[in-house]
Amino acid sequence: MANTKLPARLLDTSAIPALNVTGDLTVDTTTLKVDSTNNRVGIGIASPSAPLHVGDEAYFDAGTRHYTYDDQANFWSLYTNTDDSFRFNYNGAGADEVVIDSSGNVGIGTTSPSYKLDVDGVIRGQQYLRLKDTAGTNRFAIQAESTYVTQSVGALVQNFVANYYRFYDDALSEMMRIADNGNVGIGTEIPSAKLEVEQSNSSTNTVFLSNSYNNKGFRTGHSGFATFSGYQDSNNTTSGSAYGALIGLNTFYNGTNFYNDNQYIAPSSVLFKDGNILFHTNDISAVGNFVPSERLRITKAGDVGIGTTNPDGLLHIDGMTDSKAAIVVEAAGLVERLEVALRQAASLRGEIAPQPPHLLV
C-alpha cells in the first residue's frame, strides 16, 4: 500500500474490523506522518525526529500524564487549573507539588504563591545564594562554607565547621561576627562579651547612638533604665558649651529639656555641662519634660556648691534655716551631735549651744 491513495470511504472503520498499514503513512504531507523505518510519528511535520514529534502547538484539555521511566508505577500530572495556574502533581493525590500562577509566581509546597518564588518548607542550596539588583549586578550572597568566603559581593557567611556567622562588605572585609556562644563582635573576630566593639582607628567614633526625639542615646538595664545621652545644642556649635553628656536613671537630656518616660521611676542624673558637673534628684510621678532639682554642683574652677548654682568658695552651702542645719555630725549610739547652722538671733551668733551642742555661725 506504499504511496497508494485510498478513497475516504475505504477508511471507514465501521466497514472493516481493523486496518493494518505496512510502510510509511502520509496524510496531507505534514498533517500526519508515520515513519515506519524509524518507528516515529509526526504531527505537523514531514520528518519526525522523535517517537512522537509535534511540529506546532498542542492543546491538551485535561493535561498530560508522565509515567516514571523505570517501572511506570508512578506518574506526574501536568495540567492547568480553573484559576489559569499551571500545576505539577505526583500520582494524582494530595496537594499539587508545584504551582505557577497566572502572574508568574512559583509556589513549591504552597498552591497560592505570593512572590516570584514562594516556598513552604526547607530550602537547601549548593554553595551559595546570590542576589542581584535590577541591573543584574551582584549585590549580596548568603553562603555556607568551611574555609573562607569567595564571593566578591556583600555576604552573610555561616561557617559550619567553627559554627559562627560572618558579615562582609563588597571588599570582603569582615564587618561583624556572631560567635558560636552567641557573642557579637564588631571589629573583632573573638568577642568575649555579648557585644564587643573594637575600633582600631582612634579618630573614628567606636559607638555612636543618637535619636532625634529627646536625644535619648544609650539605654541599658531591665526596668531601671540606666541611661547615657550626649547632646549638641543646634544653636551653638562653635563653643564648648554647645556639648554635654548625662548619666542618669530614667532621665534624658537634649541640651534644653529633661525628659522622663516612666512614671514609676523617680529620675536622677549627673550632668556634665559647660565644664561643670551637676547632680540632680527628683520626686516626680509623671511622664514627659520636667525641671530637675539640682542638689550639688562642682564648677570647672573646682568650687563646690550645695543649694547654690554659683558657689563663691571652695565649699558654698546655701539654704540653711532655723530648723535645718547645714552640716550635722553625729556618732552612732550617742544622743549628742554637732550641728553647723545659721541662726537669726543675734545673742546666739558665734556661740556653742548646750544639749545638744551646736556650732552656730
Observed structural traits:
disordered C terminus; rod-shaped; 361 residues; 7-stranded mixed β-sheet; 8-stranded mixed β-sheet; mainly beta; 0% helix; 32 strands
SSE layout and pairings?
Blueprint: E1 25-27, E2 32-35, E3 40-43, E4 52-54, E5 64-67, E6 75-80, E7 86-90, E8 98-100, E9 106-108, E10 117-119, E11 128-132, E12 138-145, E13 154-159, E14 164-168, E15 174-178, E16 184-186, E17 195-197, E18 218-220, E19 226-232, E20 243-249, E21 252-253, E22 258-260, E23 268-273, E24 276-281, E25 288-290, E26 293-298, E27 304-306, E28 315-317, E29 327-330, E30 337-341, E31 352-353, E32 358-360
Parallel strand pairs: 3-4, 9-10, 12-13, 16-17, 27-28, 30-32
Antiparallel strand pairs: 1-2, 2-3, 5-6, 6-7, 7-8, 8-9, 11-12, 13-14, 14-15, 15-16, 18-19, 19-20, 20-23, 21-22, 22-25, 23-24, 24-26, 26-27, 29-30, 31-32
Describe, in plain words, how this protein is organized in 3D.
This protein has 361 residues and is an all-beta fold. It is 0% helix and 38% strand. It has an eight-stranded mixed sheet, with no helix packed on it. A hairpin with a 4-residue loop joins β31 and β32 (358-360). The chain is rod-shaped, with a radius of gyration of 44 Å. The N and C termini lie far apart (141 Å). Residues 345-361 have low confidence and may be disordered.
